[in-house]
Specification:
This protein is mainly α and about 140 residues long. It has 6 helices and no strands. Mean pLDDT is about 75; it is low at about 120-135.
Length: about 140
């Protein structure tokens, strides 16, 4: 939270000029746009050694669809558990290991965004922050 607070109150007052070709500026603008950054922030992060990740739009669409599927599975499980708790017989459904299925959906969502088959590292899970400035 401190990093977010510092980011809002910090004023950058020194300007640094850099000469680029028009092709370089277009390429940097495209990278920054895909990453949701402006060029200044892109350069600051790259100079600090941060990796800039861009996620294809198709991956984002799949990510959100998997989130909806996971939510629906949770609703089905809750309805089943509520029916059992109320002493009624829940509607029959196929025997599906819900928790295992939800874990697999979460792994797929992470794979779509992070592009990794393994568990994400702490670096992958760090939200946008200026923590790198504390080096």
């Amino acid at each position: 939270m401190t990093a977010k607070l510092n980011q809002k109150t910090k004023q950058r007052t020194i300007q640094f000029k850099l000469m680029l070709t028009s092709q370089e500026k277009e390429a940097w603008s495209a990278i920054a746009s895909k990453a949701g950054l402006d060029i200044s922030e892109l350069v600051r992060r790259r100079m600090a050694g941060c990796r800039i990740r861009t996620v294809p739009e198709a991956n984002w669409q799949c990510y959100w669809q998997l989130l909806k599927i996971g939510t629906n599975i949770n609703q089905i499980a809750k309805a089943q558990n509520t029916a059992l708790a109320d002493g009624t017989i829940p509607p029959p459904i196929d025997s599906i290991p819900f928790e295992r299925l939800l874990r697999q959906i979460d792994r797929l969502r992470l794979h779509l965004i992070l592009g990794a088959d393994n568990e994400p590292s702490e670096d992958d899970l760090i939200e946008e922050s200026d923590d790198w400035e504390n080096w």
